[in-house]
Amino acid sequence: MLDITLLPGEYAVCRLAADATLPPALSSGLGAADVVTVSWTADGISLICPTDRAPEQAVVETAWRCLRVAGPLDLASTGTLAALVDPLAEARVSVVAFSTFDTDYVLVPAVRLAEGTAALERAGHRVLG
């Protein structure tokens, strides 16, 4: 069983050109529950952030809710993401997943949040918030 916290507010999944610069405001003044993650590839920059921090020049998909596994997790542990993604896939809830050094996160569409949290609870997880 995992303890999972629903973070407040909505999140955006964004795409920027590979040569774009990130606005400084993206990382300044983050609240205790906020999370921002950035991935660079030769094809572009992928960014997940609170919706109100999405860069204007980005291609943005909004209305995601963010769930965080209570951590820190041991980097050697296995199956954590599968324990989240599998029940969501069975419930046909789309996910965007990412990991940090300390824990794992999944985003689910805001319109499917109730179905997603119910699927996680049926799988034996506890969703807080």
Structure explained in plain terms:
The protein is an alpha+beta fold and 129 residues long. Helices cover 16% and strands 36% of the residues. It has one domain: VC0802-like (2-Layer Sandwich). It is built from two helices and eight strands; from the N terminus they run E-E-E-E-E-H-E-E-H-E. A hairpin with a 4-residue loop joins strand 6 (96-99) and strand 7. Helix 1 packs across helix 2. The two termini are 17 Å apart. The mean pLDDT is 91.
How does the SSE layout of this entry go?
Elements: E1 3-6, E2 11-16, E3 37-41, E4 44-50, E5 59-69, H1 80-90, E6 96-99, E7 104-109, H2 113-122, E8 126-128
Parallel strand pairs: 1-8
Antiparallel strand pairs: 1-5, 2-4, 2-5, 3-4, 5-7, 6-7
Helix pairs in contact: 1-2
List the keywords.
single chain, VC0802-like, alpha+beta, globular, 129 residues, eight-stranded mixed β-sheet
Quick rundown:
The protein is α+β, with helices and mostly antiparallel strands.
Per DSSP, what share of the residues sits in E-state strands of 2 or more residues? 35-45%
On the 0 to 100 scale, the average pLDDT is: 91
Q: H/E order of the elements?
A: EEEEEHEEHE
Number of helices: 2
Q: How many discrete structural domains?
A: 1
Radius of gyration: 15 Å
Which stretches are low in confidence, meaning pLDDT under 50 for 5 or more residues running? none
CATH architecture: 2-Layer Sandwich
What is the percent of helical residues? 10-25%
